[in-house]
């Protein structure tokens, strides 16, 4: 827990402090470390990683996100993370992040030497929160052992639409009941805090009522979203369980008639109204809901102006090695 607090403080002071109460984009106060990227290598000696290592040395990335194709075994990924960390010249730790929710969304699998977890829905139906915490401790221990310090989970979307192709349909939600979601999210977070792993509440302001998958394209929840979807976020923020929050790419005309949540200052300002002062990270900006509808330049300007502290580019859908430099160019910041 002590390690988690120290890491979080360092990240917050270095990243969030540059954005706090920012009324508009100001190139003089925008942090250099505002981009998180993915990559496609597995071997730390891979030539493909040369540019990423240089970006890390130059302090241009907040962290790195890993996918299943980056992970072959415990030994391999532990060595890879250590090698990337060795290029960090800052006192601020790099975020080494992964999506390890359980069920369909987990990158550390049995065939690679890790434990696997059931879906959130299964756990909420078949385990008590105390039992769930024990299961999640195994996950958190695996993450910490190989060097991950951020898990992009838990999902706290309410299961309002059980047929949602990206949430309820693949059992990523604990429940449609706020109390249940909060209880199991706390179990998840407590387990990770025991091993110094930062968690991330997602997807603000709620993706559980969607009828479409924002990975694939524009996702409008105007007629299905309910303000009860804010309650898990408010409860967990108030109770001190929000280490980091990820925005959703859903469009909700009732909150903002112009922009989807990730690009919407009106939406993200709701977190400030809840008393949240931590890191806000965008969902992957390569996803169809954003990439198919906004230019790269508009995406960056809108996302930063809306209040996102970290812009996530997975390099999962297509590969662009120079996102950190390109983001700074868009914002008019000199690239060293």
TrEMBL record:
Q: Could you tell me the keywords of this UniProt record?
A: Glycosidase, Hydrolase, Signal
Q: Specify the superkingdom.
A: Bacteria
InterPro entries according to UniProt = GH (IPR017853), Glyco_hydro_3_N (IPR001764), Glyco_hydro_3_N_sf (IPR036962), NagZ_Beta-hexosaminidase (IPR050226)
Q: What is its EC number?
A: 3.2.1.52
Q: Which residues form the Glycoside hydrolase family 3 N-terminal domain?
A: 36-318
The answer to whether the entry has keyword Electron transport is: no
The family database entries (SUPFAM superfamilies) matched by this protein are listed as: (Trans)glycosidases
Classification via Pfam families: Glyco_hydro_3 (PF00933)
Report which reactions are catalysed by this protein.
Hydrolysis of terminal non-reducing N-acetyl-D-hexosamine residues in N-acetyl-beta-D-hexosaminides
UniProt similarity note: Belongs to the glycosyl hydrolase 3 family.
The identity of this protein, by name, is: beta-N-acetylhexosaminidase
User: What species was this sequence derived from?
Assistant: Seleniivibrio woodruffii
Q: What is the lineage of its organism?
A: Bacteria, Pseudomonadati, Deferribacterota, Deferribacteres, Deferribacterales
């Amino acid at each position: 827990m002590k390690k988690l607090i120290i890491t979080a403080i360092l990240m917050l002071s270095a990243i969030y402090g540059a954005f706090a109460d920012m009324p508009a984009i100001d190139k003089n106060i925008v942090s250099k470390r505002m981009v998180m990227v993915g990559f496609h290598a597995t071997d730390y000696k891979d030539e493909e990683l040369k540019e990423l290592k240089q970006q890390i040395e130059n302090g241009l990335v907040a962290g790195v996100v890993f996918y299943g194709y980056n992970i072959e075994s415990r030994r391999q990924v532990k060595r890879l993370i250590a090698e990337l960390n060795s290029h960090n010249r800052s006192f601020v730790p790099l975020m080494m992040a992964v999506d390890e929710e359980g069920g369909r969304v987990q990158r550390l699998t049995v065939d690679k030497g890790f434990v696997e977890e059931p879906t959130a829905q299964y756990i909420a139906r078949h385990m008590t929160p105390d039992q769930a915490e024990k299961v999640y401790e195994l996950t958190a221990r695996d993450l910490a052992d190989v060097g991950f310090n951020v898990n992009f989970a838990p999902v706290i979307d309410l299961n309002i639409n059980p047929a949602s192709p990206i949430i309820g349909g693949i059992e990523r939600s604990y429940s449609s009941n706020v109390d249940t979601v909060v209880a199991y999210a706390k179990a998840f977070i407590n387990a990770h805090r025991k091993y110094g792993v930062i968690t991330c509440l997602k997807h603000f302001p709620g993706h559980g009522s969607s009828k479409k998958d924002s990975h694939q394209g524009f996702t409008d929840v105007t007629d299905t979203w309910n303000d009860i979807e804010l309650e898990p976020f408010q409860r967990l923020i108030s109770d001190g369980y929000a280490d980091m929050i990820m925005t959703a790419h859903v469009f909700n005309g009732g909150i903002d008639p112009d922009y989807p949540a990730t690009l919407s200052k009106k939406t993200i300002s709701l977190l400030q109204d809840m008393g949240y002062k931590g890191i806000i990270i965008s969902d992957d900006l390569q996803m169809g809901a954003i990439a198919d509808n906004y230019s790269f330049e508009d995406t960056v300007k809108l996302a930063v102006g809306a209040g996102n502290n970290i812009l996530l580019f997975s390099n999962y859908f297509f590969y662009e090695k120079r996102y950190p430099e390109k983001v700074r160019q868009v914002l008019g910041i000199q690239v060293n």
